[in-house]
Amino acid sequence: MPGLLRGVARTAAIAGTATAVSGRVQRRQQGRWAAQEQQQAAAQQAYAAPPPAAAAPPPAPSAAVDMETKLAQLKELGQLQQQGVLNQLEFDQQKARILAQ
Predict the structure, then answer these.
(1) What is the mean pLDDT of each run of 10 residues along the chain (101 residues)?
(2) Where are the domains of the chain?
(3) How would DSSP label each residue in the chain?
């Protein structure tokens, strides 16, 4: 009888250890799969269609553009930046171009 109990105890210990190891492996694999899915989702977002390009104001027919036209262009430029169409660098470049006219 003691040999039978020892065999049952050994089997129980082995089964418990196997279950614990299997659970750890499964959790690790699920974590890796979740990370891969997140990377794939981020890659798909990066390859999504780029936002529409901001339409640049048409160049002035003459070298001397009157002040009202410059102000209107600057206001439009500010609105495009507030809407998120232009970032700060694009805004600064366009502003410098308008003021240089």
Answers:
(1) 73 78 83 86 68 62 69 90 89 88 75
(2) 1-48, 50-101
(3) -HHHHHHHHHHHHHHHHHHHHHHHHHHHHHHHHHHHHHHHHHHHHHTSPPPPPPPPPPPPSSSS--HHHHHHHHHHHHHHHHTTSS-HHHHHHHHHHHHH-
